[in-house]
Write a structure and sequence with these properties.
This protein has 259 residues and is mostly helical. The protein folds into two domains: 205 residues, Up-down Bundle (Rhomboid-like fold), CATH 1.20.1540.10; 39 residues. The protein is built from ten helices and three strands, in the order βααααααββαααα. Strand 2 and strand 3 form a beta hairpin. Helix 1 packs across helix 4. The longest helix has 28 residues. The N terminus is likely disordered.
Length: 259
């Protein structure tokens, strides 16, 4: 798959931040599996019986860093890099990392709910990766994705198509060894988290209000406001590291205005 945005050129955030470390850690775990595969799978894979009866709750996180082979790891990391890099630039590393783990845990919860007595371990970041695909479709719905590098579809259409495919494949039992409903769990968790997360934050602030002094807009000149807008656009497209010394000074000046 490949994509392009019809309204805004998407930046290449590159090999950095949370995505870099997820790729490195899961890559190292893939190598470790070559020497201690069964041991790691038993203790770190997601096995419902062990989680629900022995309370090995760490498995709902650690399973995401194990994979069934090179191609399983490669395609997960490739899709994560392709779509996640734009989200990490837009949201910031901590927010993106939080979303990644929330969707991965949501996928794990789906496995536990549907197969509570299973002794078969689940592994892979696919649930979280499908969650990232949903997030990309919600943030950049008009971006064009080229399925198989040939067929152009909009991001929201691609996400819906994958959801339908996973649903029918799961109901028919297609794809032995593939946790179809874990993929759907990641997608559903991601959708709910993005769709309703803001409302939760608002409700939280009602109980724990944060008092802030009102912004005095007269201290912000029109010229400074235009420069700040231009710099913010640059940050969204190329990241913070792309700023020049002068642009960083402007942002420091902006952030030091009286609030």
């Amino acid at each position: 798959m490949a994509f392009e945005d019809l309204h805004r050129p998407l930046s290449a955030a590159g090999f950095r931040g949370a995505i870099k470390w997820i790729l490195i850690i899961s890559g190292l775990m893939l190598l470790a599996q070559q020497f201690a595969g069964s041991f790691l799978l038993y203790y770190l894979g997601l096995t419902p019986v062990l989680v629900l009866h022995r309370y090995w709750v760490w498995q709902v996180v650690t399973y995401m860093f194990l994979h069934g082979g090179f191609f399983h790891w490669f395609f997960n990391m490739f899709i994560l890099w392709m779509f996640g890099r734009e989200l990490e630039v837009r949201w910031g590393t901590l927010t993106f990392l939080k979303y990644f783990f929330v969707t991965g845990i949501g996928a794990a919860a789906c496995v536990l709910l549907l197969s509570p007595r299973s002794i078969v371990p689940t592994m892979g970041a696919s649930g979280a990766v499908f969650g990232v695909l949903v997030a990309f479709a919600m943030v950049f719905p008009e971006a064009v994705i080229y399925l198989y590098f040939l067929i152009p579809v909009k991001a929201w259409q691609a996400a819906l198509l994958f959801a339908v495919i996973e649903l029918f494949a799961g109901l028919e039992g297609g794809g032995a060894g593939i946790a179809r409903f874990a993929h759907l769990g990641g997608m559903l968790t991601g959708y709910i988290y993005i769709r309703y997360g803001w409302e939760w934050k608002i409700s939280f602030k009602r109980f724990f209000p944060i008092r802030r002094r009102p912004v005095e807009f007269h201290e912000l000149s029109d010229d400074l406001a235009k420069e700040v807008d231009s710099i913010l656009d640059k940050i969204l497209k190329k990241g913070v590291n792309s700023l020049s010394k002068r642009e960083k000074e402007i942002m420091e000046r902006y952030s030091s205005l009286k609030h």
